[in-house]
Amino acid sequence: MQKKPLRIMVSAILLISWMHAQENTPGEASPINTVSVSPNSTFVLSAGTDHILRIWDVASEKLVRQIPAHEFWITSAQWSPDESTIATASKDGSIKLWNALSGNLLRMLEGHNGAVMAVTFSPNGQFVLSASHDNTLKLWNSTTGEIVRIFAGHDFSVTSVSFSNNGTYFISGSLDRTVKLWRIDLSEPLATWEGHSGGVLTVFFCAQPGRADGAFRRK
Asked: What is the C-alpha to C-alpha distance for residues 131 and 112, in angstroms, rounded to an integer?
C-alpha cells in the first residue's frame, strides 16, 4: 500500500526533469530548485531559476499552467493541504499565494529582510511558515497575510522548515549547522540539536511511531 505514492512521486519528479529538458534548448537550460507533489498525488509543482512556477498533471504527463511568479529565483513552492492554494518563495524576499485553479495571485507576503529559502503550509492550512536568509522564521495568517509570530534563534540563514502532523510544532534547519524545535505559540526554540559539520539544507518532521496525531515525546 505504501509503494504506489512513492512510485507516483518518483515518476513525477523524473517527468518534470525530462519535460524541462525538452522545452529548453541546451543553452537555455534552467535548473530546478523545488518540486512538490499535491496531497492527492494528481499534480506536481516545479520552479527554479527562470522565475516561473509550473504545474504538471501526472496522469496526462502534460504541463497544465505556467505562472511568471517572481522577479528572481523561486526557492520553494508548496501546496496547501486542500490543494486550493500554492505558496511560492523567492530570492526577492517575498512569498506569494496563488489560486491553484486559475493561477491568479491571491496575496503577497512581505516582511523578510533577505531571500526566502523555504515555505510551507500548516496541516490545517491556516498558517504559512517561511524561512529566510535574514536568520528568522515567520508565521503568517494564510487568509489575511498578516504576520502572526516571528521566530529568532538561528545564527545564520534558515534553509528549511517542516511541521509536525498536528501543526503544534515545527523544526528548522540552518546554515549555522543546527536543527531547532519550536512551538507555533512560542517565539523561542524548545530545543537545539547539533552534530552536523556543515549547514543543514533540509529537514523533515516524522511522527512518533504509533501516534496518528503527529505528537511526540521529548526525553
From this structure: 9
Spell 7-17 as b/e; 16+ CB within 10 A means b: ebbeebeebbe
CA-wise closest residue to 162 among 196, 194, 121, 124: 121
In order of start, what are the domains of the chain with their CATH numbers? 3-194 (2.130.10.10)
pLDDT, tens digit (0-9, with 9 covering 90-100), for 107-153: 999 999 999 999 999 999 999 999 999 999 999 999 999 999 999 99
Looking at residue 39, its pLDDT comes to 93
Buried b (16+ CB within 10 A) or exposed e, 114-144: ebbbbbbbbeebbbbbbbbbbbbbbbbebee
Do 164 and 211 touch, CB atoms closer than 8 A? Answer: no
Q: Where are the alpha helices (DSSP H) in the chain?
A: 3-23
* Cα→Cα distances 187→14, 44, 78, 85, 181, Å: 39, 33, 24, 27, 11
Going by their DSSP bridges, the two strands 62-68 and 74-79 should be labelled as: unpaired
Report the C-alpha gap between 64 and 209 in whole angstroms. 37
| CB distance 89 to 110 below 8 Å | no
Closest by Cα among 55, 96, 56 to 75: 96
Give the 3-state secondary structure of residue 166.
coil
pTM: 0.82
